């Protein structure tokens, strides 16, 4: 397994992490503007909508970043309880199901963006084209699939979960606390 940073890994890290960080800072600033304007008695109408759209961008970029670093939600307890044969299939199941999910997400996002563009739909108070906001859906799907490819190259051991207690100290504790039946002679 190659742990050296690749061009793809660096580009994905920059795209997902930096863009998600910008979205987080944007959410923070917009919420601060919203709170300050309400305290001053002059509420600004666009802040709620801007927060919502920045949050959507932050979530989709975070999702793509999570697949790049293999920090996505996985049912490791269930995998650890399966026989070794099933645990060995966890990698192809993870990859195939994730890629299918993101293909559907990208396809749905593409058609949503296309519809928003054709209808010239704009956000209510921001006057921003909705297709610009919806673009994150297919973009994050592509970034997530590329992240899966990169994680297979650099973090395959985390995906495979060859050791049933890997990353699950509570499973180890529960297993060691369970009394073992004595053998009968």
End-to-end separation in angstroms reads: 47 Å
Q: What structural class should be given to the helix and strand makeup?
A: mainly alpha
Radius of gyration: 22 Å
- What fraction, in percent, of the residue positions are helical? over 70%
Identify the overall geometry. elongated
Calculate the mean pLDDT score and round it: 83
Main sheet makeup: none
Strand content: under 5%
Quick one: how many beta strands? Answer: 0
Helix/strand order, N-terminal first: HHHHHHHHH
Instruction: List the total number of helices.
Output: 9
> What low-confidence regions span 5 or more consecutive residues with pLDDT below 50?
170-174
Number of domains: 1
What is the oligomer described by this structure?
A: single chain
Q: Could you characterize the architecture of this molecule?
A:
- It is a single chain.
- Helix content is 72%, strand content 0%.
- With 185 residues, the protein is an all-alpha fold.
- It is elongated.
């Amino acid at each position: 397994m190659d742990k050296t940073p690749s061009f793809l890994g660096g580009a994905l890290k920059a795209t997902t992490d930096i863009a998600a960080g910008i979205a987080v800072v944007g959410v923070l600033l917009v919420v601060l503007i919203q709170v300050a304007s309400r305290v001053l008695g002059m509420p600004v109408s666009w802040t709620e909508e801007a927060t919502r759209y920045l949050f959507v961008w932050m979530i989709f970029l975070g999702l793509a970043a999570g697949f790049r670093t293999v920090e996505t939600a996985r049912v490791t307890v269930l995998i650890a309880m399966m026989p070794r044969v099933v645990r060995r299939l966890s990698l192809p199941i993870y990859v195939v199901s994730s890629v299918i999910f993101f293909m559907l997400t990208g396809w749905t996002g593409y058609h949503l963006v296309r519809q928003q563009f054709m209808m010239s739909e704009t956000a209510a108070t921001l006057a921003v084209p909705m297709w610009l906001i919806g673009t994150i859906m297919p973009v994050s799907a592509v970034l997530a699939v590329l992240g899966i490819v990169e994680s297979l190259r650099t973090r395959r051991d985390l995906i495979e979960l060859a050791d049933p207690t890997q990353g699950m100290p509570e499973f180890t504790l529960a297993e060691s606390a369970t009394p073992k039946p004595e053998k009968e002679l």
